[in-house]
Design a protein that fits this description.
Blueprint lengths: L9 E3 L4 H5 L33 E8 L3 E8 L4 E6 L8 H13 L1
Parallel strand pairs: 1-2
Antiparallel strand pairs: 2-3, 3-4
Length: 105
Amino acid sequence: NYLAPKLSNGFIFKTHFMSQLLNTGTNGRERPTYTYSNVQNWSRRIECGLFKLDNLYIPINHQNVHWLTMRVNFKAREISLWDSAGMNYTNTQYIDAALQYLGDT
């Protein structure tokens, strides 16, 4: 992993994490349905443990046409979402899903 040495106590989930969590199907356009069971084991890949990270990065492929980036900053206890197209009301689904995932993990 090229970025791993540059991330100090951080982790990047694979690009299909959010589509699996929201179960949006292979085309990314199915109605989002929060499905924790699809990703419940993903945090096991993090050696130090999810909640001991400084930052968790989640790349998001919105409907297979646009990319967003989410950062969960555990130290500051905040979630940031970056969208080059600007904030859209549909983006809140990703923040809500991340919050629910963190609570379920």
